[in-house]
Amino acid sequence: MLRKLRKNLSVKPEPVHFRLWAAICLVSLIKLIFVSDYTVWIQHYEHDSQLYVSRAFQLLTGNAFGPYDAYTLLKLPGLSFWIAATRSLGLPYLLSLNLFYLGVGAYMVFVLKRCGLSVAACLITFLFYAFSPVTLDGYWIIAGREPVSLCFLGLLFASAADLFCALRDNRSPFVSSVILAFSVAFSLALREEDKILLAAAGWVACIAIYELFRKRHLMIGSIYKPILLIVFPLVAIPVLTNFFSRQYVARHYGHPILNDFNEGEFPKFIAAVRSTNTHASNRLIYFTSENLKQVSERVPRLKPLVQKMLVPSDASASCLYFGICDELAGFQLMVSVKEAAYLAGLTPTLTKAQEFFRLARYELEQACVSQELNCKKRGSGLLPPFQLNFTRAYLYEIYDITGKWLHSPLYPPGPPPASYPASINVARQFQLATMTSYVDTLSIQEREEHERWKIYGDETYLSLKYWLYHPEVASSSQYGPGRGLARAKRNSEYEEQQKRLMREQFALSPPVYRSALAGLRNWIARWYNQLDWVVELLGLVALLGGLLLKLPRRRPLMLAIGIFFGITLLRLLALAYVALFLGSHQPRLVYPSHSMLLVICIILITESVETLLKKGDLRQ
């Protein structure tokens, strides 16, 4: 029995193709030269790139994610962990991203070669992968989740194919199973909709066990083999990483919640408010301002929150994106509720935030039971349940997202601007966390930020801004006693001091570097992006032609491709459902799926051409 198991787990030596790997190294070097002039684009968005970088900055300084506020746990912490980890290794953010992306491509080539593709097919696939238009897009240089998500999606596809190849060749699938489990585990902390990757892990485990049954290698006495080598890593690694991540948050904030926007009490509170009587007919408006005021009359603890809510206007995001100017809608409405609760002093910590939203929800439900409020059950989570009258809109969102998946618009980044529209404090965090070399900012933005924070009162201004960025100033020993004008004067004096220091640093910084290959890079990206539909059409022809001509297929690759299309379909359906209530998504959300689609089409094309050529040679 042991001899048979040892024989099945023996690894067959793979021939080393020196020319292939030399070519891959050369292509990787050229790609790194092509993007050597990219710098991180600094954005002043509290709920997006600034949030990820700010949390990474706090992780690097030993303060967890920083003091709790309305944005601290607004989104999953995966990207913040990534930025902090690469910075700890001394790697700039963009360099680490490009190296990881090219490393995943090299692993994919290794797997394709194991599955039986020729050297030429592997090199062509890597060439198209390395110069994917997504990696030359402007979103690639923003501290966003999509580039890292693309890398882990490619790692998932390659490791799944490697696992199936290992089963075909009677090799141990343990290493590929661990890589697959790690990619799923990290993705779960990266994007909210990546929970569907758990389905991919389940599919891989079921298919692997079926393959063992099909080859009659799974007997009654050897049931432990697939469990230990395949199922155990796929279950243990995601579960353990999720557990330890939540324990880390619980140790610093009091609750094991990675995202308090769609976990814990906040989504239940939103569902309770949504269930009260509302006159809104637009699905993007969960509840109207007037309805929220009426609810606060029955639940007095909500009155401070209502007073701090944003007032709908022509300059609101709801008006700019949705054309809804008399109400707050979609994502802005829910973020405004969280922000208003924090500014009103109702949610100074995560523990008190959970308690406040729980009590408010309980009082709302009691008012509904006693019929003080006219209520109708409209779900229990952040998003309302599906209704038949949403069908047409849902189909449109599916059509819209599918179009972006098949062809995503490209916005090649130009040289860095003369100065970024961000404050010096934000620029300092980007510079430290991402190791970007160009962080010049606008003084106009600094004045606007100062005026914006002053309207919320001196205590909020001090605690939220200065304690986050300058803890030494917020301490009494450095800052001293005093209130009102005296404190505001010291605020401005410290700001001016920081401005002078930063200006001196910027004056000594080297001039902005611009790659001589920037024009060629943009030309390649533009043409590749314009011809992506040709690649997709040829991939479809290769897939259907192989079925019609009954061409022999490499089973491990086809199984991995089938899993990719399965999780992509689930992702499209999930994103379309979210878009019903939060508004249509930006194209960057489907960049990972779009880029992997192009790579898979190239694999299908090269494999079909190889098969046809071999079939022709055999006939001759």
Question: How would you portray this structure in words?
Answer:
The protein has 27 helices and no strands. Helix content is 65%, strand content 0%. Helix 7 (145-168) packs parallel to helix 9 (197-214). The protein is mostly helical and 620 residues long. It has helices at 2-8, 18-34, 49-60, 78-88, 93-115, 119-130, 145-168, 174-188, 197-214, 224-253, 266-274, 289-298, 303-308, 317-322, 330-343, 350-369, 391-406, 424-434, 443-454, 458-469, 471-474, 476-479, 484-508, 518-530, 532-548, 555-582, 591-619.
Produce a short descriptive summary.
The chain is an all-alpha fold. Helices cover 65% and strands 0% of the residues. Mean pLDDT is 80; it is low at 1-13, 452-489 and 505-509.
Taking all Cα atoms into account, the compactness measure Rg is 27 Å
The amount of helix comes to 55-70%
| Helix/sheet category | mainly alpha
Order of helices and strands: HHHHHHHHHHHHHHHHHHHHHHHHHHH
Mean pLDDT: 80
Number of helices: 27
Q: What overall form do the CA principal axes indicate?
A: globular
Q: What's the total count of β strands?
A: 0
User: Termini separation (Å)?
Assistant: 46 Å
Q: Low-confidence spans: pLDDT under 50, at least 5 residues? A: 1-13, 452-489, 505-509
Beta-strand share of residues: under 5%
User: What's the story with the biggest beta sheet?
Assistant: none
